[in-house]
Amino acid sequence: MKVSPWNLKQGFDSLQALTYPSSVKSNKNATTKPSTATISAPAYAQAGVNLDSDEAFVEDIKKIAQTTSKRREVLSSIGGFAGMFKAPERYKEPIMVACTDGVGTKLKLAAELGVFDSIGIDCVAMVVNDLVVQGAEPLIFLDYLAMGEMDQEIAKATLSGLAEGCRQSDCALLGGETATMPGVYPKGEIEIVGFSVGVVERSQIIDGSEVHDGDAIIGIGSSGVHSNGYSLVRKIVDDAVARGELDIHAERDELGTTPGLALLAPTRIYVKAILNLIRDFTLHGIVHITGGGFVGNIPRILPDSVMARVDPTSWKRPPIFPLLQRLGGISEDEMLRVFNCGIGMALIVPPAQVEEIIDRLRGLDEVAFKIGEVHRKQSPDDPSLELVTPS
Amino acid sequence: MKVSPWNLKQGFDSLQALTYPSSVKSNKNATTKPSTATISAPAYAQAGVNLDSDEAFVEDIKKIAQTTSKRREVLSSIGGFAGMFKAPERYKEPIMVACTDGVGTKLKLAAELGVFDSIGIDCVAMVVNDLVVQGAEPLIFLDYLAMGEMDQEIAKATLSGLAEGCRQSDCALLGGETATMPGVYPKGEIEIVGFSVGVVERSQIIDGSEVHDGDAIIGIGSSGVHSNGYSLVRKIVDDAVARGELDIHAERDELGTTPGLALLAPTRIYVKAILNLIRDFTLHGIVHITGGGFVGNIPRILPDSVMARVDPTSWKRPPIFPLLQRLGGISEDEMLRVFNCGIGMALIVPPAQVEEIIDRLRGLDEVAFKIGEVHRKQSPDDPSLELVTPS
Predict the structure, then answer these.
(1) For residue A93, which residues of chain B lie inside 8 Å, CB to CB?
(2) What CATH code is carried by the domain that includes residue A234?
(3) B205 touches chain A (CB under 8 A)
(4) Which pLDDT belongs to residue A302?
(5) A101 vs chain B: nearest CA distance in angstroms?
(6) For A197-207, what is each residue's pLDDT tens digit?
(7) Total number of domains constituting chain B
(8) pLDDT one-digit tens code per residue, A222-255
């Protein structure tokens, strides 16, 4: 597959690397209902839920989960009422960190293209990227999958992506819930929610309180739109398709692939890179550029006394962003308010360490740029973030 | 409100006790869109997601979350990228226990009746009841809410129920995700998923390995259908309504309320009662009667050498069950395969402690019965569970 330079070491490679069924077209005509003679709850099966096959599917899930991290801290396997784990013993004062997220309406695009493993990676990415910004190492992951009608091919592809995301972030797929909900989700679609718990040494929590005047801001490249802003993406795409200006299935030179696949590129997982940096450098603050873009996220960790000044022209945007901007007629302000625009993580670091950190990130197969600095506010009313192109 | 004796101390009371808007009828005609002049991402807002109001809503969520447990172990508040907590200091070898669940298609019934706080309680109940059966004390809870269009009234009612569930189980609502997903969920509906982490002393984990020949099985009463089997419930109800045999809005003497409200009764939360028992009694095994009913759950914790014999006539079923059975023509076997049939938890205990445990449960406002015993299997091929009515 031809890929853009941007994606060379990123999303698409890991998507291709999945050894389990990578692209599952949902077959809307297939029926695999066993005869009622073998069903332990026939009326429930007629209502759309087959307890026997759902329970048998747990064995398949176990096999997929076993491909994720064999952490010594995990004390139970899937199938119990709940999963058990503990903090690694090397922690003196372990603090647990927990968060949850989904992948938004990127789900609809996955269903449209019949490709479900990438949203599994997305789901893990959205959650563990929120953990690692506090300095935490992810330990375990739980998933919730819901479908209107149990489609084991779709569920397995999604779970395979979840397992790949867990491997990329070195956490164990501890358990989860697969719900059959007739009438809630259309055939061929799936909802996916993830939850992770990590651990951080109390003295090493990164919360932005150390950020100060003169710090530099480093951006780490994203693999594309990641998993935010897809309601806008879909509107832009649908309108452009309706106008005859876009075919999501046709390769485009500037993307090196089709718009559909470029938009489905899995969210980059920054866990290993950031944990590597934490061991050797001083990170004052880490920001996941998630829902709300630069404007919604950088201010979340800044002390009141300082502001961030980011130059939005200081990095090269992946080609999917100018394409969306042009097709949708989206203003520059809104692009930076909704999308990551090519930066998945922002690191706030002492200026003397900038070059070494960027070198290390490149050695870790990440793309990185210095994108701004931190300044003391002149007045308490100053904004927390300025997006300024130097004249 | 008139309630059935069964529900007197249970679901309905806690539903009524909510001081925040208890019943929210979704207003399908209301529009609260601000003028585009005040919107920071106008194209995204046109695509159905208003970042400004979504971010402002986080403040409302914080206020609701603050009504839940002020656990000393919680180190962060809502709004960060992830929530932080630690194991209570009294634990010598703390093991963390994590699980996730949703409330299935009970969601559709809630949307039909325009009542959303009860499913918030359900969501917490389904999760923390899975934790406590392993002997764990729930510490924190995270929620995922998703709607097609952000309806703050529905979200607040649901969150209020979640907060009530957290109070009933003494855990902190640590954080969560509220997703606006146009095109995935119809207006007036919501998806809800919960995650919880609890802690148990390693030496006190309850996993069924101590269950042995001669143990007694005690059932603790449910508040109704809880949150499993609703696809079957809805099929039975819809068919009966179509035949003119049922009006879900009309009070029925045998229920002491309407079928709609009886079916929406919040799932009983057993955390405080079971943690109380664990302090003073020997519990060899605890089984949450969740999806799959008696047949799907009791065998999950039994050692291979033993079987459970349960007498399904040894307790009085809440009136909603015979009503569903009669209307749907559901066999006795299937009733016990799908529904809890009036028993939300099963405890496996030494026979000498049965009376004292039942007395204690009654003192804790629970309804409890001896419902069976554990026997040694005569052959390895014997079933793990027999449902036997003594002749």
Answers:
(1) 86
(2) 3.90.650.10
(3) yes
(4) 95
(5) 6
(6) 999 999 999 99
(7) 2
(8) 999 999 999 999 999 999 999 999 999 999 999 9
Q: A130 lies in a domain?
A: yes
B376 lies in some domain: yes
Q: CA B247 from chain center: how many Å?
A: 26
Residue contacts between A and B (CB atoms, under 8 Å): 257
* Same domain, yes or no: A342 and A249: yes
Residues of chain A with pLDDT under 50: 1-36
Say yes or no: B165 and B220 in one domain.
Answer: no
Task: Say whether both A127 and A242 belong to one domain.
Answer: no
* Order of strands, sheet of B385-387, starting from the edge strand that comes earlier in the sequence: B285-288, B343-349, B216-221, B368-376, B306-310, B385-387
With H, G, I as helix, E, B as strand and everything else as coil, classify residue B33: coil
**Record: contact B43-A140, CB cut-off 8 A:** no
Range of the domain at B329: 216-387
Torsion over CA: B205, B206, B207, B210 (sign)? positive
Residue B28 forms part of a structural domain:
no
Domain boundary among A204, A231, A263: A204
Please tell me whether residues B245 and B293 are part of one structural domain.
yes
Is residue B239 within a helix (H) or strand (E), and if so which, with residue range? helix B230-242
Are residues B191 and B283 located together in one domain of the fold? no
Q: Which residues of B touch A197 (CB under 8 A)?
A: 96, 98, 197
- CATH number of residue B68's parent domain: 3.30.1330.10
**What does the alpha-carbon distance between residue A65 and residue A87 come to, in Å, rounded to a whole number?**
20
CB contact under 8 A, B82 and A131: yes
> pTM, whole model, 2 decimals?
0.90
Which residues is B84 bridged to in the sheet?
A: A97
pLDDT (mean) for B361-374: 97
β-pair partners for B98 = A83, B197
pLDDT in the model for residue B390: 77
